[in-house]
Amino acid sequence: MIAVNQGSLLGRVKLAWHFFTQEYHYTHQRLLRWIQGILLLFIVTLSLSSHSIQQYLQQNLQGLLGADAVISQQQAMSEQQYASLAKLSKKISVTQQISTVLTHQKKWQKAQLKAVDNAYPLQGELLTSTTKGDDGQVSANGPVTGEVWLDARLMASLELTLGQSLLIANKPFVVSRILQHEPDRLMEGHSVAMRAMINSEDMQALNFASDLIKYRYLLAASDKQITQLIDWQKAELPAAQLLHKQGQHPLALFWQRTENFLGLASIILFFMAAIAIEQIGQVHMKKEQFFSAVCMSLGADKITGLQISIVKWLFSVATLIPVVLILASICHFFVIEFLKETFSQLSWQLDLVQTFKPIGSVLVIFAVFHAPVWLALLNTSIASQFIGQSNKLNHWLGKLASVVVLFIVAFSYSDNALLTFMLLTAVTITVLLMIFISWSSLTLGEKITQQVSGLVPFALFMMKQRLVSKSTQILGVGLCAFLLLFTLMLLKDLGNTMTAYQRQHDGNLFISQATQAQMDYVTTWAEEKDVNIRQSKPYMYAKLLKINGTDLSEYSDKPSDSLATFSDAIRLHWTELMPSNNALVSGKWWQAGDSNWQQVSIEQEVMTDLGLELGDILSFYINKQSYQFTVAASHEFKPGAGSITFWVQMPSSALAHIQAPHYTMASIELADEQWSLLTPLWQKFPSLRMVSLKELTSLFDRTLAMISKVISGFSLLIILLSTVVILASINALQSKEKKKNSVIMSFGFSRATCLKLNVIEWLVTASITAVGAIAGTYIAGLLIYQSQFSLTYQPDFTWLIATLVIILTSITGLGVFASRHSLQSSVRELMAEN
């Protein structure tokens, strides 16, 4: 026995190291390292990946802006505004861009058409080639009049070769070069749209409506001029977007939002870890209290035992960190490779500062988890080890520590009160559901089988006697199964449900933007061709500038989906009556003929996300004029009447006071033989924005596929923690299980009987777990589909049954295998212990 040196700190450190090495291979220590390692691995990998993306975006901003600053807006500047802009910059290049359709013979393809002036490119290199696969040559200017440059994908889609002609708005253009790289590519937001480039003089000849063209003013300016430009843009062009090299990448907030969402999702992992740590803590606390009591019996005080315990914990995390760093670097590499599909130039690099920042934060959380053990050491005594009393205060401190950790994680990553509330509510409901199912199942099962003999009634009776410990075990395993099932099953059903709903109510072709003239023609065309127009709703574009007098850019510093959308112009719909696919949530809808036209209804989720209330004042910029509206009501989507809905709606009486171009959204049903009718329609109106349901479904499926990859990685962590939770619960109850088996064998039963009882217990545990997980997933599906899509959730029951069988087999097999040591007991051991 090593003597406890009360006076030497170095002696205590040596003693802590001695016992740390002795306990290193203990089961509860191994499980604790697994938990801490998994959590550290997730948070460090997330932090490294997010940092790499943000660094890439900042470098991307410097290299792909194509200017020192860019002003982008839907209308052309006036001569006076252009003259003022020229004084605030060294050089200007103006580009115009429109979404249009290019046709060649009977083929058509949607593309982004850009018109450039003779000053383009302002900065950077414009690369083109005359053969496919060529590295490209630097072009000093854009195309000359009458020529068009196409990217390789667009040429392949239209089956064009250099020297051939294509039609744009029924005007022929000669394809002269292959477009490879544009120096101002950043402004497309990493769009995958096909590209075409013409001379700006040709854009005027095409006679596109000016309100359909996006104008971009590329500026060469000094840092001082950029500062002046920022003030000038706010005063003169409040609805315009200004990007500059001193600022933030337009996608930076989006990726910050992504990191926050994944970080918030990690609350699930921390909750599972809390369950496992509480199970392990039962064993760990007893061993630490026993060691502290031994130290006190040798003359040491309570502080000595506490100090040694803390130093042992520090040794534990210190030996864990190098392993985590290596694994996190590997995971970070694979994440970067996965993201290269989106960001081709993204590269892997290790940042030690960025690595240790999240490690420090997570270690604080681990210390909170461990705090009940350390507090228990302050309350331990030699006498308590003889009488074996349990401290209920320590039990509740463990619960409190778990709650504190969950709130720390939620507070650290939350940028959306609604999302955070929904996630925490879902976890809470799941926990309560699991507790209810486990308690009611065991209690009811024990009551029903009271008068029946056999192994099953006896197993239920024994489980009922250990209701609290068994419920905790079921809760941990059940929550893991629920989370795994929830993440995989809902994604599987979501695509089919959305596609079926859109096919039923919206037809198979969407018109997202049509001018009044275009929509009038489409209506006549539909009547002549016997085409069914399912829905048709008008709107105008409006840019939100201020909320209650505060500029939108200053309203909130947290990333938000709603704020990101409102940073550009949104579709503002007008109507007298409540749309049939909307329902009033709060406030009062306006009446026909109401003289108050300056009122709006806002979608309820947007209200919550932005923290809006009834009576708030919103300032919208519409067609170069500013208008103020009061939030009079909030609405939400209601299924059964089509899916075209709007975030912001106003009374029809407002049209008498607002002069702005009107557009229409519509949905159409085309028969198979009618799709060929679209070619002449697009030749007449190349700027008509239409998209098929097949394209929308394909985009949705690609998005779900990407999400599924992320979820699969997340699910792997859930599976690992699920296994640890099961092993932790078995480890915590192992001594009691040994006693139970010894008592059973003392009545003359064999080990085989104990094994059968063990199998029955785990089958019951797995059954309750599976029922709870499936019920929780079904309820969550109902709530999410109703609140987010207002649809009825219809799961695949064949898939559910298969999942039930997998859960039963996996949990029972793992539980029986892991608890095999509890069968290695004997009556002699029981007598010796007594």
TrEMBL record:
Keywords: Cell membrane, Membrane, Transmembrane, Transmembrane helix. GO terms for cellular component: plasma membrane. Residues 714-823 form the ABC3 transporter permease C-terminal domain. It is found in: Cell membrane. It holds the Pfam family FtsX. The keyword 4Fe-4S does not apply. This is FtsX-like permease family protein. It comes from the Bacteria. InterPro entries: ABC3_permease_C, Membrane_comp_ABC_pdt. The keyword Transmembrane helix applies. The chain crosses the membrane at residues 261-277, 313-339, 359-384, 396-413, 419-439, 472-491, 710-733, 759-785, 797-818. Its main location: membrane. PANTHER family: INNER MEMBRANE PROTEIN (PTHR30287:SF1), MEMBRANE COMPONENT OF PREDICTED ABC SUPERFAMILY METABOLITE UPTAKE TRANSPORTER (PTHR30287). It is a multi-pass membrane protein.
